[in-house]
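Tokens as discussed.
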């Protein structure tokens, strides 16, 4: 049942991304082009997502545990460190140059665009490099 729920959640998310037009990198990039062909629709999509998330969290946190697990898995870190800042910067640079974020790129695979595949491969390579560098740093070899 857990996997069916995950599939349904992914389908709802992907449908929302498709209906809102956020699978089109030009639409996302136009949001960042304030001096040119600015398209504010991404702000409305994010605002709608914030409202749904706000209400959803208020309802979910009333429960003792999630439906398909024994406890909630929520992050507890409150430190703003170089990993957080670096990751946020890389995410922003990637989003601003490619017009995709990983969450929207996965449903965009259905469009058959080679740019989506290239973006997700780059995300995978970058993630793998970071994991490798993190492992080396723990051994105090670098970083």
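Sequence:
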């Amino acid at each position: 049942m857990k996997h069916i729920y995950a599939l349904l959640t992914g389908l709802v998310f992907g449908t929302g991304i498709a209906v809102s037009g956020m699978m089109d990198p030009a639409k996302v990039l136009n949001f960042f082009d304030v001096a040119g062909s600015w398209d504010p629709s991404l702000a409305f999509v994010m605002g709608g997502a914030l409202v749904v998330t706000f209400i959803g969290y208020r309802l979910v946190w009333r429960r003792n545990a999630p439906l398909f697990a024994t406890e909630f898995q929520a992050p507890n870190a409150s430190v703003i460190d170089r990993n957080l800042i670096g990751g946020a910067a890389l995410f922003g640079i990637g989003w601003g140059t490619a017009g995709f974020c990983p969450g929207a790129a996965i449903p965009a695979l259905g469009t058959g665009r080679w740019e989506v595949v290239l973006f997700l491969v780059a995300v995978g390579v970058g993630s793998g490099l970071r994991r490798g560098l993190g492992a080396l740093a723990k051994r105090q070899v670098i970083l």
